[in-house]
Amino acid sequence: MTDALHIASLLVHCRPELMDAVKQNMMLLPGAELHQESAAGKVVVVLEAEHESRILDTISHIQQLPGVLNAALIYHELLSPEGESE
């Protein structure tokens, strides 16, 4: 790895009846992993990217998906090329 790695986690809140469609759309995004979810329409998403701008663009994209009510950044970490937190 030549660049630093940005890791971010989000809590995405969507309309429960559209959660399957929202999850399908988010799984298509590069660097996105879906983790825990609730029947209330909440999904934990982890993003990885080499540039912070890619994280911000992906969050913006998620916020615009049909059925998404909110996407909130919960955690962000920058790992150096040596694997250490900065």
Can I get a quick summary?
By secondary structure, the chain is α+β, with helices and mostly antiparallel strands. It has one domain: Alpha-Beta Plaits (2-Layer Sandwich).
The count of strands amounts to 4
Sequence of secondary-structure elements: EHEEHE
Rg: 13 Å
Output the structural class.
alpha+beta
Strand order of the largest sheet: 2-3-1-4
What is the share of helical residues? 25-40%
Number of helices: 2
Instruction: From the 3D structure, determine the CATH topology.
Output: Alpha-Beta Plaits
CATH superfamily: Lrp/AsnC effector binding domain/regulation of amino acid metabolism (RAM) domain
CATH architecture: 2-Layer Sandwich
In percent, how much strand structure appears in the residues?
A: 35-45%
Average pLDDT for all residues: 93
The global form is elongated
Defining traits:
86 residues; Alpha-Beta Plaits; alpha+beta; 2 helices; elongated; four-stranded antiparallel beta sheet; single chain; 4 strands
List strands and helices in order, with pairings.
Elements (H helix, E strand, L loop, with lengths): L4 E10 L4 H9 L4 E7 L3 E8 L2 H13 L3 E12 L7
Antiparallel strand pairs: 1-3, 1-4, 2-3
Structure description:
The chain has a four-stranded antiparallel sheet with strand order 2-3-1-4, with helices on one face. The chain has a single domain, classed as Alpha-Beta Plaits (2-Layer Sandwich), CATH 3.30.70. The chain is built from two helices and four strands, in the order E-H-E-E-H-E. A hairpin with a 3-residue loop joins strand 2 (32-38) and strand 3. It is of the alpha+beta class.
